[in-house]
Amino acid sequence: MVKQDRAIRTRHAILTAAAKVFEERGYQAATISEILAVAGVTKGALYFHFPSKEHLAEGVLHEQDQRLPIPERPCTVQRLVDTVVLHAYHLQTDPMVRASVRLSLDQQAQGLDRSGPFLRWSEVGTELLEKAQVQGELLSHVNPAETADVVVGAFAGVQAMSQALCNYQDLPRRVSCLLQHLLPSVVVPSVLATVDITEHRGAAVQTELEALHAASLRVPVS
Amino acid sequence: MVKQDRAIRTRHAILTAAAKVFEERGYQAATISEILAVAGVTKGALYFHFPSKEHLAEGVLHEQDQRLPIPERPCTVQRLVDTVVLHAYHLQTDPMVRASVRLSLDQQAQGLDRSGPFLRWSEVGTELLEKAQVQGELLSHVNPAETADVVVGAFAGVQAMSQALCNYQDLPRRVSCLLQHLLPSVVVPSVLATVDITEHRGAAVQTELEALHAASLRVPVS
């Protein structure tokens, strides 16, 4: 158990170092030696966890995957919205998520398959939209996979624009504005009227998840 | 006149070389010496046109600016749509536009102000939407500047996703799908019913502009 803990800590130290170096230098220019120097681990430990630069990048790319899924909600469209705004919140607050998103948009990263995060986010979105459809929350013409792709693609660009213009300071407002433009083509009006897409939603969802997590730690394992 | 022609050709050769090097190496890793070697011009000529790497990048970033504006149309929303789908068409067909868009999303480009293309496209979109608003084509709640920002940001991400997944092969379909999701929140239904946002629109607009350009060359200057 202690040994496993240490392996997790080492892996995390390596990924944090890789994220930092990829972010500063770009995938193409980054070298394993630099990552090694920043991580402060042995060469053996690094190659044990990640046999190549590509594996390191894949590891960082996975760090934007949804960690704590949004709990079930009566309204599944709200759950989809919460997934989107929480990701925006993490972009503002978590350097690892930021590095991961930047890497997936690094068009100079030759030989690196950057499709993973796009495909995984699309899958998360498609699943939620299919559920919302069954619950009657969507307009009848909606194709869940197509709409999920639009949401994922549009979000990627809105975050890039916010980053280029003001280093993410206006990201919650821009994401709220994007949802205001997309949802009326997707969601039935009665659901639209109840969904919270204001710019404070991301921080509120994060607080909710932290409270749920703290509560789960207090429950004795039976 | 001949001298000016040569200057234009030299400037173009330098920008083409800069685009190629930035695309291959990223802004951060690219050097003026490499660009010089690819361009095949003298050091003096290069520094005359572009005194620094940042100036070279700014030059490439300007290459995605709208070159031939879409002509006036009875429906200004169609003109906006045509501006968007033509840009998508150029992304598929023009390496310089592609290099420019990649550079504006290069988050490793430290010290380079990448806000220019976002702001200029937003301005183009805002102007068209303000005109459409005056013509009664927009829903009454629409804020032209906000909607323009959503369109520009969302487009940037949809193109990045198409590039990462299939090197732009499905870009026209994705852009058409994005417009299907955005326009119903922006445009009055009677206008929506007449606007062509199919995936073949970009190539059609390009053909139209080429014909207009060819015709203008045949008209004697009075």
Automatic annotation (TrEMBL), chains A, B:
<dbReference type="InterPro" id="IPR047923">
    <property type="entry name" value="ArpA-like"/>
</dbReference>
<dbReference type="InterPro" id="IPR001647">
    <property type="entry name" value="HTH_TetR"/>
</dbReference>
<dbReference type="InterPro" id="IPR036271">
    <property type="entry name" value="Tet_transcr_reg_TetR-rel_C_sf"/>
</dbReference>
<feature type="domain" description="HTH tetR-type">
    <location>
        <begin position="8"/>
        <end position="68"/>
    </location>
</feature>
<dbReference type="InterPro" id="IPR023772">
    <property type="entry name" value="DNA-bd_HTH_TetR-type_CS"/>
</dbReference>
<feature type="DNA-binding region" description="H-T-H motif">
    <location>
        <begin position="31"/>
        <end position="50"/>
    </location>
</feature>
<dbReference type="InterPro" id="IPR050109">
    <property type="entry name" value="HTH-type_TetR-like_transc_reg"/>
</dbReference>
<keyword id="KW-0804">Transcription</keyword>
<dbReference type="InterPro" id="IPR009057">
    <property type="entry name" value="Homeodomain-like_sf"/>
</dbReference>
<keyword id="KW-0238">DNA-binding</keyword>
<protein>
    <submittedName>
        <fullName>ScbR family autoregulator-binding transcription factor</fullName>
    </submittedName>
</protein>
<dbReference type="Pfam" id="PF00440">
    <property type="entry name" value="TetR_N"/>
</dbReference>
<keyword id="KW-0805">Transcription regulation</keyword>
